[in-house]
Amino acid sequence: MINKADYVQSLEKGLKVLKAFGSDKKVMTLSEVAEVTKMSRAAARRFLLTYTDLGYMHSDGKYFELTSRVLDLGYTYLSSLDITEIAKPYMLKLSNLVNESSSIATLDKNEVVYLMRQQVSRIMTINLGIGTRLPAHVTSMGRTIMAMNDFKEELLDVFEYEQYTINTISNKIELKKELQKIRQQGWALVDQELEAGVRSISAPIFSKDGSVKYAMNIGCQANRVSKDRLITEFLPHLKEAAGNISSALKKI
Amino acid sequence: MINKADYVQSLEKGLKVLKAFGSDKKVMTLSEVAEVTKMSRAAARRFLLTYTDLGYMHSDGKYFELTSRVLDLGYTYLSSLDITEIAKPYMLKLSNLVNESSSIATLDKNEVVYLMRQQVSRIMTINLGIGTRLPAHVTSMGRTIMAMNDFKEELLDVFEYEQYTINTISNKIELKKELQKIRQQGWALVDQELEAGVRSISAPIFSKDGSVKYAMNIGCQANRVSKDRLITEFLPHLKEAAGNISSALKKI
DNA sequence: GAACATTTGTTCGTTAATCGCACAAATTAA
DNA sequence: TTAATTTGTGCGATTAACGAACAAATGTTC
User: Phi, psi (5° rounding) for residue B57?
Assistant: First the structure.
């Protein structure tokens, strides 16, 4: 925690107002925003009016809603990444080759965050897209990144080990063993642990300094692609694509 | 412009710091941020430390960079849209059917902002993705949305009418005529006006209230798909997909 | 390694940005 | 029409945020 004098509370409050909007709150009145953010009505009003003036929100006089300009905020991050530009052609090629969806994600504490996605068909119940967050320990990309890094043991304690499906690894010891295995073999396969019917395989992407901040995957439906086929047929292509991206990142 | 007392200046400054980062400024020192944002070093420092404490930035002690958490900010907008979830299957189907890339965009003043994209192959020089902004008047989706709305004449004056290619419509009168034509025929085709070799066709998506806030397109390379083929073969599929999305939006 | 230049960290007095209450005005509900 | 609820606004009070100045740390040059 930083020094109180170094902290800009108005910025924190402003971001809290922005984040109050979402799929379950597409539009809100002033009073609703104040309630959700636990601010005074006057304070909430000032933030809403400031966002509106800056173009990030629109109001019809009663309801406030976000505008597309909010994407610019997320866009600054994506455009500051080298991997986005570099990986695109390899991801397209891989996806076309295996005729399945592919993604790249990074680790943020106990979650993976989707940075890129080339979708071939709808696999999961939820709509995966840039910005989507999933619990890292039950995803192939999350496990790959965790396994290839010297993560602190405490990270394993953060997970809730929810039993998403009957396949889900739901205790720390099993997870640790699985991560050690992944570290050795250099790839991860998650078979219907987060959602029944969904299977995915992942490989690490190495940055210039040798660290693994990203992973790439192929995701598919279990009734369409066997585990064996994923490993013997798809994994070589995935490794090649991830390897090409790694090489390209080294050349920057 | 709102009343000065209703404006939160710290929020504006904070967002300015966030937006200072991007493709040409992947990392910055404290002094660089202060310089770019024209703030005092002390002020810039407080914003940087606040972002870092909230998880939106990371610092190695000297350089600051954005983290994936910044995507959450843009994600709030995307997840507050109905169209994102609804359009996905139709877009996938369309893209697979015509074997070309498809996108959905919205209009923000004189620019279109990409909200969704299903890419089949690399078409344009720049990497198109969610959040990308392009000048509306030289894109098929921009023209579609403008044409289907009673936009104010003043909007035509905002464009700079840059001559991107020899095909570019580069004056107001021609653009206006083209928009009138689009309004009548209900679709737009832009042939190598923003970038040589790139051609795209677009159709409107109607919201529940009958307004057109979004458009959908098919984009392809001019040497692979003729204008005639775009119109006779691809347009029917595009219109069907856009129509299905429109219908689904009406049912919410 | 010393001297100098540049950048960053910190303190603190100042001030104006932001606060929230109270009441007016407008809108919505009964 | 009345009552309830929400929003708009003014304004005195408070403190959050300010930036200057100096210390400390880091980087550069010789």
Answer: -135, 165
The residues of chain B scoring below 70 in pLDDT are: 1
Mean pLDDT of chain A: 93
Same domain, B114 and B208: yes
Q: Is B193 helix (H, G, I), strand (E, B) or coil?
A: coil
Interface of B with A in 170-189 (CB under 8 A): none
Chain A residues whose beta carbon lies within 8 Å of the beta carbon of residue B73:
15, 18-19, 70, 73-74
Report ipTM (2 d.p.). 0.92
Q: Say if B53 is an interface residue toward chain A (CB within 8 Å).
A: yes
Q: Do A49 and A108 belong to one domain? A: no
Contact between B84 and A11 using a beta-carbon 8 Å cutoff = no
A235: CATH: 3.30.450.40
B11 inside 8 A of chain A by CB: yes
The answer to whether residue B72 is domain-embedded is no
The pLDDT assigned to B227 comes to 95
**Domain span at residue B44?**
4-67
Residue closest to B50 by CA, chosen among A15, A87, A80 = A15
Q: Does A125 share its domain with A85?
A: yes
Q: Could you tell me the maximum CA-CA distance found in chain A, to the nearest angstrom?
A: 62
Cross-chain residue pair B47–A119, CB shorter than 8 Å: no
User: Is residue B102 within 8 Å of residue B219, measured between CB atoms?
Assistant: yes
CATH code of the domain containing B58: 1.10.10.10
DSSP string, B106-146: EEETTEEEEEEEE-SS--SSS---TT-EEEGGGSHHHHHHH
Has residue B134 been placed in a domain?
yes
Contacts of A56 in chain B (CB under 8 A): 15
Q: What is the pLDDT of residue B1?
A: 62
Q: What is the pLDDT of residues A61-77, one digit of tens each?
A: 899 999 999 999 998 89
Asked whether residue B73 is assigned to any structural domain, the reply reads: no
Contacts of A86 (CB under 8 A, 6+ apart): A245, A248, A249
For residue range A3-33, what is the model confidence (pLDDT) as tens digits? 888 999 999 999 999 999 998 899 999 999 9
